[in-house]
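Box 3.1 A note on notation
Throughout this textbook, protein chains are presented in two layers. The first layer is the amino acid sequence; the second is a C-alpha cell string describing backbone geometry. Keep the layers aligned when reading.
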Amino acid sequence: MENYNKLRGNLGRYLAKYYLNEFVKGLLISLLVGGVTWLSIALLEYFGEFNKGPRTFFFFSFVAVIGTLFISLILVPIAKYFGLLKGKADNEAARDIGYSIKGVDDKLSNILSLKTKADLNTNDLLNASINQKSSQLNQYDFRIAVDFKKNLIWLRYLAIPAVIVLAILLWNPAILSDSSNRVVSFNEDFTPVAPFQFVIKNNSLSVAEGEDFELIVETIGSKVPDNTFINRAGELLRMKKLENGTFAFRFQSVIDDLEFNLEGAGFSSSAYIIKMLPM
C-alpha cells in the first residue's frame, strides 16, 4: 500500500495548505471588518461626541466584533492546521480537489470510498486495486487546488478603508485619535471641544481709571458662533457683531478691574481680566 500511503501524504499536504490559506484569508477579512468597524465608530464619535452610554456600547461592540473575528477566522484555522480541532473530512477534501484539478475528478473520492470498504472487509484484491489507482493520482500535487492569489480580492477591499484612514491622518489626525481615546475611556466624562477659538485682538488688557475700553474679539475655527457674549459673574452682555467673525463691546468709565469670560455657541473661554490703571 505504498502508493496509497503516498496519496494520503499528498492529501495531508493539501489540507495543511488549505488551512494556511484559510488563516491568511481570515486575517485579511478580520483586518477589513475590524478596520471598517473602528473607522465607523471613530467617525460617529467624532461628529456625535456621545455621552457614556453610547460610548460604552461602541467599545463593547467593537470588542465583540474583534473577538468573534479572531476566534472564528484566525484561531480556528490555526487549531485545525495543528490538529487541535477536527478539520475538513477526507471526502469533502477529495471533492474539492477533484473539482479544482482536471484529471483527478471523482477518482480520489472513489479511492477513499474503496479504502473504507477494504478496511471493513480485508480483501487483498481490493487493496491491490486501491494501490494501483493511487499511483495514477500521485502524479498530481493536490496543493495546487489551493490558490493563495484568490486572497488578493480582500487586499483590494482592504485598500479602501486604508486610503480613507491615511487621508484622515494627513488632514487631521485628531479625528481618529481623540475619538478613539473617548471610546476607549468610555466611563469618563469629556468636555466637548469648541470648533473655534476666541482671539482677543487688543494689544493690552488695561485701561486708565475712568476711561472707556473697547474689547475686540475674533472667533477663528471651522464653525464660528453667530453671537458672542461677555459673562461677568453670571451676567451676559451681548457683543456687537462686526464682520468676519469679529465682535466688539465697549466698557464705559472703568473704575475697577473687570474679570470676565467669553461665551458663544454653548462654549466658554477661560477667564480674562482687564486691569484698571489708577490715575
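The first helix runs from residue 2 to 48. Strands lie at 196-200, 206-208, 213-221, 229-232, 235-238, 240-241, 246-251, 258-264, 267-268, 272-277.
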